[in-house]
Amino acid sequence: MSHSHPLRSLALAASLALAGTAMSATAAVPASAGAPSPGVAACAGSHDAGAAARVRQGAKNDEPALFQGSPSQYASLTDSATLAAGSVTIPTYFHVVLPAAEANNGTAAEDRLRSLVNAQVDVLNNSYAGGSLTSGSAATPFQYSLKGVDFSYNDAWYGVVPGSVEKEMKAATRVGGKSTLNVWTANIGDGLLGWATFPTKRLSSDDGVVILDESMPGGTAGKYAFGDTLTHEVGHWLALYHTFQGGCKGQGDQVADTPAEAQAQFDCPTGADTCTAPGADPIHNFMDYTQDSCMYQFTAGQVARMSDAWTQYRAG
């Protein structure tokens, strides 16, 4: 999971199979190598630039069992006719969670976060359009139209982590069907930057993306505050795996034009090449774990995969 995704190390540790189907898989981003583990208090509550890098985690079981020989519902995705660039407009709703105490402080907090949301949607659209800020990126079929922003004041939701409180929060606020993107923002716990569900044939009540509020552009998450956490997590929502999926072996992320890499990369390690297969590590790819300023690319193969996933799982 944005060059800031929650505990990147968590996603690696949670590299459990998605049990044949990638249902409600959340991809989360953990802390960088050498930093305290995501469960450590020093990492869990610290979102500032000086804290250990937070991981972009996208799913509770972010790494499917696919590479352990188990079948995957996504194995049938093929690079068939890719939808035209910018041809799909996705209605997008933001559900902003604030602590209960803020309810008595007027609209200042809401006004600030609404501004961050607007900036975030601009970054999301630019990233998926292959725009000027993402030079060298393939244009995708997707653009995002902000349809609504709502606010909830709830202390339990404000520190949400994957699990029961997440389900409660989503059940109370989610809108639309499989083709509607729901994004929840909060001061999420466990040192995560965010997580996302993968697409399923039948709409899951968990469907959507959760991100750290301060990872939006203009937030306080330091090198993870340029909006790429959401870009990364929406990639999972559209069936992309991490570029380091499966390490140097097997089918990797099932995308032919993303070079294999042995593990997630952090910061911006130019020239890193951890697998003997051709190609340097794709550190500029939105689906790695590098910092926001380092990420700017989707490949043509990733675009085709997202397009196929949309057609098979989310369209209509």
Automatic annotation (TrEMBL):
Classification via Gene3D superfamilies: Collagenase (Catalytic Domain)
Record's keyword terms, sorted: Disulfide bond, Hydrolase, Metal-binding, Metalloprotease, Protease, Signal, Zinc
GO molecular function: metallopeptidase activity
Cleavable signal peptide: 1-27
Residue ranges constituting the Peptidase M43 pregnancy-associated plasma-A domain according to the UniProt record: 194-309
Superkingdom of the organism of origin: Bacteria
InterPro entries xrefs: MetalloPept_cat_dom_sf, Peptidase_M43
PANTHER family to which the protein is assigned, alphabetical: METALLOPROTEASE MEP1 (AFU_ORTHOLOGUE AFUA_1G07730)-RELATED, PTHR47466
Family: Belongs to the peptidase M43B family.
Protein name stated in the entry: Zinc metalloprotease
Native species: Nocardioides zeicaulis
